[in-house]
Design goal:
single chain; 15 helices; Rossmann fold; 11 strands; Sufe protein. Chain: A; alpha/beta
Length: 365
């Protein structure tokens, strides 16, 4: 038993925590050159003890960091009566990660096909180009679009010391998507709500985001599991950006998104009217393919800010398919200038987002 324990310690010496957690019974046995059959369980005990010690250290490190926090009102300082020790540590780890992020921006839409992911991607890029430290999180579990839009189709995520390392674009932008964990672009994620909640929690808690000014979160259309999970887990300050096209069909669904935000106590940063008009490339005249002004009228009706209109530009499609940041490549185009105006309003509006605490997970469930 002593020999197995000493060998497990020797195998772990000099390794990263992530690597040490991979040490198993067979590794100890091989390093010792084998043990008698009746003593092989000692190698298993040594490996299990090593893993337990590492996980205990990781948990205590999180607890100590939270206990030293200067925010006396933080609910993660104390364990709740209804949670286990592991759940308490998980909650502290999530809070500690989210505390490093200035503002979380949940990009939502009432229905699909309104360009929400394109807006989220270009919003993240524009914020990073403005010198902000930005994370872009794709929580569209069943139909992730961010990797394609960002030119990261074949990218994969690696782990380092128990953390997931996000993909980096330039100096200021980090990206995570469920697509980075799939073996191919034909793989379907067939999950119900609890599994989706779990992976979104992992993306928020275990990704090495580091200090950020903004975390832009691209949610699937509607008001289902994914935006609800973000509202429950991300903490404050957070706000929602609602994307719509001008026609009545899209506007009707965005009303529900506004109601969703009210019910989960998430302030609405504002509404963006996307695909708002097309400039004819031949005559220069304006064509309102989907009407215009619907998003602004809805914002006025619901009492939320209107962030601006973004016109249709065929180059947005070309850039999206090619994984090229449109707002950077065509910075002087009318649509890019409209994006820039929206970004300025988002920065101004998000800095005044209410910091009132949102509902607890139990209250929302």
């Amino acid at each position: 038993s002593r020999a197995a324990g000493s060998m497990a310690t020797e195998l772990a010496t000099g390794k990263l925590l992530k690597e040490a957690l991979q040490i198993k019974q067979k590794d100890v046995l091989e390093a010792l050159g084998g043990l008698p059959k009746e003593s092989e369980h000692c190698a298993l005990l040594a490996a299990d003890t090593l893993q337990a010690a590492i996980r205990d250290y990781q948990g205590r490190r999180t607890t100590e960091q939270c206990s030293e926090c200067s925010n006396a009102d933080c609910p993660s300082k104390q364990r709740r009566a209804d949670e286990s020790e592991q759940d308490f540590r998980d909650r502290q780890a999530l809070t500690r990660r989210m505390c490093q992020i200035g503002r979380k921006l949940l990009v939502m839409s009432g229905k699909g096909g309104v360009g929400k992911s394109t807006v989220a991607a270009n919003l993240a890029i524009a914020l990073s180009l403005a010198g902000r430290r930005v994370g872009l999180l794709d929580v569209d579990i069943h139909g992730p679009s961010i990797p394609k839009l960002m030119g990261l189709d074949d990218a994969r995520v690696v782990a380092h010391e128990g953390e997931l390392v996000p993909l980096e674009i330039g100096d200021n932008l980090k990206v995570i998507s469920i697509a980075f964990f799939l073996s191919g672009n034909r793989d379907a994620v067939i999950w119900r709500g609890p599994l989706k909640y779990g992976v979104i929690k992992q993306f928020l808690k275990d990704v090495a985001w580091g200090p950020l000014d903004y975390l832009v979160i691209d949610a699937p259309p509607g008001t289902g599991d994914e935006p609800l999970s973000v509202a429950q887990l991300a903490g404050q300050p957070a706000g929602a950006i609602l994307v719509t096209t001008p026609q009545d069909l899209a506007i009707a669904d965005v009303r529900r998104s506004v109601s969703f935000c009210e019910k989960v106590s998430m302030p609405v940063v504002g509404i963006i009217e996307n695909m708002s008009g097309l400039t004819c490339p031949h005559c220069g005249g304006r064509i309102d393919l989907f009407k215009t002004g619907g998003g602004e009228s809805l914002a006025r009706e619901m009492g939320v800010p209107f962030l601006g209109r973004i016109p249709i530009d065929p180059q947005i499609v070309t850039c999206g398919d090619g994984g090229i940041p449109y707002i950077h490549r065509f910075a002087d185009s009318p649509a890019a200038r409209a994006f820039a105006e929206v970004i300025n309003r988002v920065i101004a509006a998000s800095e005044t987002v209410s910091k009132e605490p949102s509902l607890t997970e139990g209250e929302k469930q």
